[in-house]
Specification:
This protein is an all-alpha fold. The chain is built from 18 helices and four strands. The protein has a single domain, classed as MFS general substrate transporter like domains (Growth Hormone, Chain: A), CATH 1.20.1250.
Amino acid sequence: MSSSSTAPSEAGRSGKEWLTHWDPENEETWDNRLAWKTLWITTFALFLAFVAWFLPSALIPKLNPLGYSFSSTQLYWMAAMPGLSAGLFRLLWMVLPPIMGTRKMVALTSLLLVFSTVGWGVRVQEPTAPYWELMVLAFLAGIGGGAFSGFMPSTSYFFPKRKQGTALGLQAGLGNFGVSAVQLLTPYLIGFSWLAFFGSTQSISMPGKPAQDVWYQNAAFVWIPLMVLAAILAWTMLKSVPIKANIKQQFDIFGNRDTWLMTLLYIMTFGTFSGLAAQFGLLMADLYGIGNEDIVRGTGAEAVVLIEGYAVPDVVKYVFLGPLVGAGARVVFAPLTDRMGGAIWTLISGIGLVVSIAFTIPALSPDTTSAATLDSGFNQFLWGMLAIFLFTGIGNASTFKQMPMIFEKRQAGGVIGWTAAIAAFGPFFFGVGVTTLGPTVFYVIGIVWAVMCVAITWMRYARPGAPKKS
């Protein structure tokens, strides 16, 4: 039996939930079917967790058109709050897999997602909620992000090392699709009056367009039955691996310098992905849409487009593309990391980020002299952002291949949870950085960070004879 697994009797755990003598590295005893069933159920739950986490990012850019009157700074802070709370919740969730087990953790988490989702569905219907209340709802949405640091390590217990790149890449990538799904489907769901079983109709106005009736509560309420279903599936169909590790034992990862180096690399990849995904819509609106006073004057039905011939982009039609590209890259490149190793793809990710961020920076200062220059700048901004998402997705897959190769099984789960926790602060730091430093300066810092990570990857993990070839 593997040193990282133990019988339930040894761990004080009994009953049908707990597996006995579980060792994925032993082909004769490993239950392939159970491992993949666990992966698909937890991935479904993780998808919904990301939906709950990024639901505010789909709604916040529309709060003022719905009748609220928040400043740009208030909106950036609101969009940043789920990232702050997700990072804090991940510090908790990272220690739960050995303590609670996969079954209880996934079921309970899925039920917790309902609270913030219901709250947003209620509060978008009338522009009467105080700012602090929406900030609380944004904070609670971070539970969905916190789940990642529990779900991923627990799934790693079920697969041998040679398959963990594919398994974790699929789970993380398909889970990440929850970000693009909530952002893609929101503009369609809000138009279906027959879905609005609860709540009232809202009226929304965009510059140069007539007011239209919408039902923004649909964007939240439609996910609640699926969250309840995920909890039922987890409780009735999942098992738990009795990993023997208390909280104190799990903290020994901090004595390993590779823990800190991989944290820097994962900030570059998932920190960038989550930060951009949360703030993409607001940044687009502020630079090329309703938030740019050089382009649009006024709000709501009274708004006027100042640049003749320029079509102000409706951010909800574009905002889902970035997370979709990033999540798709994570899924597609995960099997390649199993074949070629993770470090080489982390290296490619870092170099790609340097180039794509540099390409995007000129578009962060829109030229408002004409419709043609605005259109050109918007296209450069959009394609540059999509390239950034692409390379973050590649890096998300490759770093999760590296960690099980660098660390022994029990530590690998803890490192995955820790790095994911720190990177989950991405939306918070992105919102604070853009607000305080401005987009251009913040993106330049991103280039410097990526260059540092490329150097670390090459020297420690990728070069011939690297100390930790992975």
